[in-house]
Write a structure and sequence with these properties.
49% helix, 9 strands, TIM Barrel, alpha/beta, globular, 342 residues, two-stranded antiparallel sheet, uroporphyrinogen decarboxylase activity
Amino acid sequence: MMLKNDLFLRAARGEATERTPVWLMRQAGRILPEYRALRGRLSGFKELVETPALAAEVTIQPIDALDVDAAIIFSDILVVPEAMGLTYEMIEARGPFFPETIQSAADVEKLRVADPHEHLGYVLEALRITKKELAGRVPLIGFAGAPWTILAYMVEGHGSKTFSKARRLLYREPALAHQLLQKITDTTITYLQAQVAAGADVVQVFDSWAGILPPTHYAEFSSRYIAQICAALAPLVPVTVFAKGAWWAVEDFAALPCRTIGLDWNQNPAQVRAQAGDKTLQGNLDPAALYGTREQVKAATEAMLRQFAGGPHIANLGHGVYPDTDADNVRVFVDTVKAWRG
């Protein structure tokens, strides 16, 4: 099916575009009243993720409400550990929680390399439904968490400021950490390949906890596994890598077959451009900038766009949009990007 709006896909391939495409991480969610209304009828987050027709509906909501240039499938990075045999819960106002965690070699041995069709079929069906209902309006993004970030949750059992249990594993039992990371990587590769087969035009790898590792550990325990994912997926679709807080990893990513590098809001686009060569850059407005007045949001967005001059760019925030953000300010951000011809 021909895309009616292929700006995002062309930029993700590194091609020239007549304007900068724009979408937002976490664009499908609590900033939209239609999402809150739907979520309020359900038992919780997991029911929404695991019900393909509803996940597809939520994926498409920001295309209608915000007129962004790409849809991202509504799911969660923690579906991967669950598919491997480690169940999670999503606790309101607290976040993810794993009743059981990985603590030993026996725990790692028990985990399976998941079959995406058997264990993650609900995500693939949501992609197929979304692709059909989008009818070529915009490209569809699939995603997964980076292996290090998934390990961090599987070992820690919940979110953390330090992920000290997960980081202790890297120092005390590096061989076991590598065994677990490889199982996660093998699952993630087949999962993303299945997402592409189900309709994803681009895939993004989210390394949400990249920034808590020192550079030597990041090279050993994260980027080498992201490299495997990129090598497996790049022949199929453009790949985006977003490693929050790992500003020093840009040179690693520049050497990978990923096509786009996502920037968080603390990174300097000009510096990244100098390190990343001809890669497409994605980002990186501070999500908190959307708390400003309409005029402030417009000015901050234009200032951000100026910093990305000189190469292909996909406008986004430097992380996900915060749930208490005014949707009208999000529209100002989107509209400002669309009007920009700098």
